[in-house]
Amino acid sequence: MGRMDAVLPIDKPAGVTSHDVVAAVRRAVGGPRKGAGRVRVGHAGTLDPFATGLLLVLVGRATRAQRFFMGLPKGYETVARLGWTSTTGDPEGELTRTGRVPDLSALPTGRIRQRPPAHSAVHVDGRRAYELARAGAAVEMPEREVEVTRFELLWRRGDRAAFAIDCSSGTYVRSLVADLGDAYCLELRRTRIGPFSVEAAAPSAEAALERAIDLGDALAAVLPVVELGAEDARRAAHGAPVPGPDAPPGGEVLLRDGDGPIAIARPRDGGQLKPVVGFRAA
């Protein structure tokens, strides 16, 4: 297989880790595990083992743009169990029946503050929070501000309730559900990352190779595009600033020519676009 620079949308099943999926893609694309010929494979945001849904696996030079894919808003569907608590916010924790059912008449939206679960991948003092929690350490998670644009009750049956949630990157749905009161996430499915939908995702690493999204197409779906002529393309490929549009958009843009993506650039004073992530250099 030739070099691949692409984004692979995969529908992760329950019971496997995001690392397992990344490892499966690494095996599927081939190449040595170490050394100069190693194929770089990463992800654009993990899912908990019990969760299912969209996982974007980044292959080759797509890993250089990881933070741009990770920063995209997310969409989820979750089933909560009401009148119960979980030490982890999901079925894998210690469960306690309280019988107290939270009020679902006013679900929180807008900018809110939340604490990520102690059993999460957030770094605390240089270690993953879940590693500390599993070791029995008391983990004090710092609050963060997130944005929830949709928190909709889809149905309720007995002690189960389903919700659709659209939120900013970095939002923990387990915390959203736990903060309702006595409830935890029984099921969690990620349905969307930015413009990418789970409906177009593949069920396995091997099948995902057939649905790989070329890096240029994937970046063009999430960033404004500036087309460059030959001379500016050469300059940008070497990291030099190039003239931008008269009114460049805020934030980063994708610089591209007929051969594909050149770099992600950031607007500078004087109408210049300065490459900050390059794709042409080896």
Shape: elongated
The helix-and-strand class reads alpha+beta
How many distinct beta strands?
A: 19
Rg to the nearest angstrom?
Answer: 21 Å
Low-confidence stretches: 120-125, 127-133
- Encode the helix/strand succession as letters: EHEEHEEEEEEHEEHEEHEHEHEEEE
Assembly context of the chains = single chain
Average pLDDT number: 88
Distance between the termini: 18 Å
- In terms of DSSP E residues, the strand content is 35-45%
What fraction, in percent, of the residue positions are helical? 10-25%
Count of separate DSSP helical elements = 7
What characterizes the major β-sheet? 10 strands, mixed
Summarize the structure.
With 282 residues, the chain is of the alpha+beta class.
